[in-house]
Amino acid sequence: MSTRFRGSQQHQHGSSSATTSSYTSSAGLVATLKDKSADELRKVLSNKDAYQQLLHSLEEVKIQDNVNDELCKENLQLAGESVNSFHCDYAIRWLAFS
Prior knowledge:
Elements: H1 3-13, H2 15-34, H3 38-46, H4 48-57, H5 59-97
Helix pairs in contact: 3-4
């Protein structure tokens, strides 16, 4: 498990820290939306791609995307190790019964 994920997970368990983080995230979102014109806000609300672009530009979402990417990479690595272990176990059993 990555250090960043463990840190995020621990951060979520502290109630006052999580509340502060929530306010910070909300403030960032509000600041981002305040900078948009009415036309830009309508576009975000009516266009899925514009909404996704805005969503993924937010710092908290970027962090979560990075955590997700790290977990996927680690999952693939563990799956590969598991497959290799299976092949070794299978070869040992085959040799033992030969």
